[in-house]
Amino acid sequence: MVYISKLLHGGKPIRRYLRNGFTDSLRVYVRGGTGGNGLPKFGGVGGQGGNVVVVGKESITLDDVVRSNKSKRYLAGNGTCSSHNFILGPPGESVKLQVPVGVSVFTDEGKKLGEINKENEELIIAKGGPGGHPRNGFLGIKGQCYSVRLDLKLIADVGLVGFPNAGKSTLLKAISHAKPKIANYPFTTVRPNIGIVTYKDLRQISVADLPGLIEGAHVNRGMGHEFLKHVERTQLLLIMADINGFQLSHQYPHRSCLDTIVLLNKELELYNPELLNKPKLMVINKMDSISGFQKFFEIRDKILNLGDVFYEYPDEMKPEKPLIFDDVLAISAKEGINDINLVKEKIRHLLDVYAEAKKEKETEKSEFLSIRESLNEKGPKLV
Ligand SMILES: Nc1nc2c(ncn2[C@@H]2O[C@H](COP(=O)(O)OP(=O)(O)OP(=O)(O)O)[C@@H](O)[C@H]2O)c(=O)[nH]1
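That's the GTP-binding protein 10 sequence above. Prediction below.
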């Protein structure tokens, strides 16, 4: 079975967090080793303290990291002091901490130490101290020590974003084999769900369904922006809205479908304006509702030229830059079997078109570089 799933996924193992529930943040304590003391009498230099290094692994989750070391402390070995037998003290042993691919490492002050994007990629997160030598009075120096946060961002191809109750989980269930929780109340989805969409030619595309966003998410209303980090690495944003709009409860105003799209535009922009540059597919759901199509045709052009309607909104709701969609689809995730196929095909088409464009751009860039290199070789020599 594992072999078959590996085969279907193009020979690569399917990331474990794509199959299971997962922890997406973990705090651990790390300490680099202390350098060994030098030997003044002979000018001996102490060994360097070992480092704490994170190493990327596709096949593990942050839960595995906890299970493998419940203390969550990673202490590298100290360097050996210089001695008669070893004038240059041997270095301390480095500690390797395996983490899932997609992890970024931050200090408690929020400084980013780096990220792991590939299998076996390594990053030193706590350096060992130098050994004692003449310039530091032959006294070994302590290594770096602090707590760090391992922050996992999903690496899914498509990210589903929308207000609560828009039907994101229903769509995910319909297009993939995922089994998300579906209910007629907001915030049914409290953590990201991942589904794998399989096409007839066995190509597989991963889709992440994120908890619903609401207006004011940037000030932590609803689930806040916490989950938006997971769409940063997706290639395509699938933005979903309910044709009937959304109302959190009776105390809150009812927002029309167009309002929710403008508000999503605003929240995405406040989180990270670069998200607006990603390819985007707009899906309007619940078209089986009464006068669904009539409502859709009233707003279709406005969705495609979103910037033109901003003047109708108060300043606090107005985004700086409009979302520009590659396409707008009107579907019923619950009733429309053909609609589901249409969404699947559209996702595939857009991913293929953008992958092709990216490839062409890279080829152009490398051709340009090689032309420049050859011109440099043959061009007039500047003295
Ligand atoms: N009429 C109709 N109802 C739908 C459709 N799609 C989803 N629903 C219903 O809308 C409700 C919310 O659906 P979900 O899929 O849980 O919505 P969600 O966007 O994942 O919601 P959160 O988890 O709160 O973010 C459920 O009662 C669904 O049955 C549709 O196409 N038509």
